[in-house]
């Protein structure tokens, strides 16, 4: 973000050059729209977005600029375009009265060997009327593995050395398993879905530095928090035995999609201690498949969980909640469960078995019913809410329940107040406290201990 430069007033005696470049005396000043241009993390081999800074002449006569130059010259990672002309320097420029000149700045880094982010600095020098002004340039550089339209055909492991950046698409072949080690960061371009026909294993751990992070590759503000900035991860019909542990998946379009039944008795997809957040569409979409999710937070998505065409689902200790933000309005229930679907020409139905145990389903005002449960035809149909909190004014007649608390605010620590601040840990006085069934699960989403008896509902145990 550009910062506004305070206007420094220079005092003292100023010598008048015999080669003045404007009709004004040497006291005439130019003003800068910013004194610093900063870039967030820049990956090597990729150019950044372009930022700009204006040199403004608020005087009533034109001012001549003897030179604008990049201190690092042509070897600098910063690239200038000065009033439409490529840098790194320009000379003998004139800014008319009440006008401005624009400098465009980008960054391009050559690949290196450092695994850690590194600071890049340079400056733009503006010389006029015998004085100089400077614009500071800063960026954080990061080396990365770049994968473009790649298919993984053999068992592969991604170590935690430098980030992975994906372009075009990534396909995991039906004969291959991709293992992502703890601490890996994966950044995905807007055109790059991940298709899993084999197996994806994410082996994160509870420490923040050991979780696995998946998000879009636009790290500059405000794009870094835009929902829908990358397509999603698609577990297709041949896929099997996918396990995601301590993964944080944010800003997708359809963040996780699983289609088709598992190829063996195991769930097609298992999510342990995962976060799915800020998805433009579905955070988790299951189509006639099998999913088990434990200690997961699915938050602030266009549609948090959507289940269609039946399947087998087990959600334990999950918090599923949505609130409107500046970028995404909460307009759909956080949970939609159906045994039906359409192929475009006919209605299809399938057997459905979905259990939600020790879970919380909640959202902001405006949506009265946070669960939509739809039954079609005469196939096997079971939806169970067991020891859970559900915001629901119109209670579905096609569900089963055990110890279901309706319309009981779970009291999250921060639900959009202050603006866009969210913390789905429970307040000490939460009605979700000590009301869970014993499922033999000893940790929560933070990796903290859960008691054997009287655990809390949702993904977080009060500490």
Describe the 3D structure:
This protein is mainly beta and 463 residues long. Helices cover 0% and strands 47% of the residues. It has no helices and 38 strands. The N terminus is likely disordered.
What is the fold's blueprint, element by element?
Layout: E1 31-32, E2 36-43, E3 51-57, E4 63-70, E5 78-82, E6 85-86, E7 89-95, E8 99-107, E9 118-128, E10 131-142, E11 145-152, E12 156-158, E13 164-172, E14 177-181, E15 185-188, E16 194-196, E17 199-203, E18 212-216, E19 233-235, E20 242-245, E21 247-250, E22 256-259, E23 269-272, E24 275-277, E25 282-294, E26 297-299, E27 303-316, E28 319-322, E29 335-338, E30 340-342, E31 347-349, E32 352-357, E33 360-363, E34 371-374, E35 381-390, E36 400-406, E37 412-415, E38 422-426
Parallel strand pairs: 2-10, 11-13, 12-14, 13-15, 13-16, 14-17, 15-18, 16-19, 17-20, 18-21, 19-22, 20-23, 21-24, 22-25, 23-25, 24-26, 25-27, 26-28, 27-29, 27-32, 28-33, 29-34, 32-35, 33-35, 35-36
Antiparallel strand pairs: 1-3, 3-8, 4-7, 4-9, 5-6, 5-8, 9-10, 30-31, 37-38
């Amino acid at each position: 973000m550009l910062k506004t430069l305070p206007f420094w007033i220079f005092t003292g005696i100023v010598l008048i050059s015999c080669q003045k470049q404007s009709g004004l005396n040497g006291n005439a000043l130019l003003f800068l729209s910013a004194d610093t241009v900063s870039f967030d993390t820049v990956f090597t081999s990729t150019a950044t977005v372009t930022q700009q800074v204006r040199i403004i002449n608020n005087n009533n006569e034109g001012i001549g600029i003897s030179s604008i130059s990049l201190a690092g010259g042509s070897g600098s990672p910063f690239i200038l375009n000065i009033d439409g002309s490529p840098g790194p320097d320009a000379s003998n420029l004139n800014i008319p009265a009440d006008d401005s000149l624009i400098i465009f700045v980008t960054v391009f880094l050559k690949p290196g060997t450092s695994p850690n982010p590194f600071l890049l600095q340079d400056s733009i020098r503006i010389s006029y009327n015998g004085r100089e002004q400077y614009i500071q340039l800063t960026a954080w550089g990061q080396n990365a593995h770049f994968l473009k339209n790649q298919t993984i055909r053999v068992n592969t492991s991604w170590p935690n050395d430098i980030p992975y950046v994906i372009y075009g698409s990534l396909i995991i072949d039906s004969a291959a398993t991709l293992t992502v080690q703890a601490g890996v960061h994966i950044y995905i371009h807007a055109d790059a879905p991940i298709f899993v026909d084999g197996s994806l294993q994410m082996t994160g751990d509870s420490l923040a530095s050991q979780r696995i992070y998946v998000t879009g590759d636009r790290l500059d503000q405000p794009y870094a928090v835009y929902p829908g900035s990358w397509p999603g991860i698609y577990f297709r019909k041949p896929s099997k035995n996918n396990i995601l542990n301590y993964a944080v998946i944010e800003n997708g379009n359809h963040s996780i999609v699983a289609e088709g039944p598992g190829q063996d008795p195991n769930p097609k997809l298992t999510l342990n201690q995962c976060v799915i957040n800020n998805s433009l569409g579905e955070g988790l979409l299951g189509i006639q498949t099998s999913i088990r999710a434990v200690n997961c937070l699915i938050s602030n998505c266009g549609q948090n969980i959507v289940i269609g065409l039946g399947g087998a689902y087990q959600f334990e200790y999950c918090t599923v909640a949505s609130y409107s933000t500046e970028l995404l309005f909460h307009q759909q229930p956080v949970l939609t469960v159906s045994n039906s679907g359409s192929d475009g020409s006919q209605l299809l139905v399938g057997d459905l078995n979905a259990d939600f145990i020790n879970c919380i389903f909640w959202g902001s005002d405006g949506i009265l019913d946070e669960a939509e449960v739809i039954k079609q035809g005469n196939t096997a149909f079971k939806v169970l809410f067991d020891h859970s909190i559900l915001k629901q004014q119109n209670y579905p007649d096609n569900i089963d329940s055990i110890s279901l608390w309706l319309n009981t605010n779970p009291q999250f620590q921060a639900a959009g107040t202050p603006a866009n601040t969210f913390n789905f840990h429970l307040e000490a006085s939460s009605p979700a406290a000590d009301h869970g069934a014993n499922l033999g699960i000893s940790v929560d989403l933070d990796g903290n201990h859960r008691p054997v008896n009287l655990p809390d509902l949702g993904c977080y145990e009060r500490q």
